[in-house]
Amino acid sequence: MLDEVVKALREALGDNLYSCCLYGSAVRGNLIEGISDLNLLLVLNESNEAAHQAIARVLGGNPKIDPFILGRRGFERSVRAFAPKFLSIQRNYEVLHGADPLKEVKVDPQLERFLCEQALRNLRLRLVYAYVTHERNRGYGLFLARSVTPLFLRLSEMLRLTKGEVPREFEARIPLLEKTFNLDGAVLRDLLDFKRKPRKLSEAETVNWHQRVFPVLDKALIWMEANWPA
Questions:
Q1: Which of 20, 55, 74, 105 is the right S-S partner for 97, CB 3.0 to 4.6 Å?
Q2: Which class for 192: exposed (0-12), middle (13-18), buried (19 or more C-beta within 10 A)?
Q3: In whole angstroms, what is the distance from residue 205 CA to residue 190 CA?
Q4: What is the rounded average pLDDT of the residues 81-99?
């Protein structure tokens, strides 16, 4: 499928497609068949409306392809603005077409810590919002399933910035997260299981999940506040 998608993108975009890279679970090795998306980083020589329409025509009928689209102009500034995401991609990616846009990516560690904290605080805000509004939105379970990977990535960033390299598999990172940040590993393991088999939650299940998941994010931020400079 990827071969067909890349071929179609090349035909639709021509020389405007500077680079196409695969990243995420398909490269890390923990893709869940039928659940996980295939993440593509598309870097365009010119990110304009015509290019966006061409990409939409190619990917519009394929809900499993999740594109991250940027132009070469301003690329370095985008890297700084979304440093944790780019550094996460950089550790597990494969160039499918064109140049390697991540080869020279480097980020100041102080900026990386700040953006890691910002992302984790944003995730906590959104988790609280999803819970407080769950009676009218009925979307807490869906939000929870979608938040598992971002949560593991943010916690893993904390771990890497504190301890150095981390294991490749999410499951293998849990003992280190427990030990370093005093997090509840059982919650993290259950979240991985929930991502594999997401479902709509009852009211009681929603309350129970929030009572377990919120303290994980809160403890991580308490650890940040105590150990990282403001």
A1: 20
A2: middle
A3: 13
A4: 91
Give the pLDDT confidence of 22-75 residue by residue, as tens digits.
998 888 887 777 778 899 999 999 999 999 999 999 998 788 899 999 999 999
Let me know: does 6 contact 97? Beta carbons within 8 Å. yes
